[in-house]
Amino acid sequence: MPNYDHIQQAAYTANMQLPKLGLVVFTFGNVSAVDRALGVFAIKPSGVPYDDLSPEKMVIVDFDGKTVAGNLRPSSDTKTHAILYKNWSSIGGIVHTHSTYATAWAQAQRDIPIFGTTHADHNTVDIPCAPPMSDSMIQGDYEYETGFQIMNCLKDRNLSHEELEMIIVGNHAPFTWGKTPEKAVYNSAVLETIAHMALLTEQINPQAPRLKDALIKKHFERKHGPESYYGQ
Ligand SMILES: [Zn+2]
Q: pTM for this one?
């Protein structure tokens, strides 16, 4: 049997960041870490409290959502991870949480507007809220369809998963991804911060304007452009 230690360790370390960052309570949330050469990923087991997790408990699953190694049941969101890995070959890690502020925007079925430079440092667009899933999707293979809902939303809006590494799913919660599991966790914390700030902004001024294009461009490019110089 191939050795899965490296992705089990990576998934474990990344999962343990979620409660530390205040992004999850109880057993909510899951992170996975992929090995492209082996065509599998390691993901948190279902229903195990964070304190009881260990690297060996991470379940190894293929891109069809089938368990390849491990005695525990993989996270109930496993098929969503599988479908995204299968279709987006450049991503190395995925995070799902029900973090409070990002989830609140998902429940309100609203995109998170780009109000400030914190948002623009990471993304040039509003964070999309994918529409709530249809009844037939919900009654079908729900977790698998959630993956399609995410991919279709980006497609409909002409957004690339390499440029935008976060989304909220209407009535549900956020999903983030990245080249590595650590980057996906980072994105999850950034999304929660942006969601919190946007809510406060609208409370203070319900008419707060969207960030102007010149600032969006400036902030994104100083961090990501060819001549990026940003480092805080
Ligand atoms: Zn969920």
A: 0.95
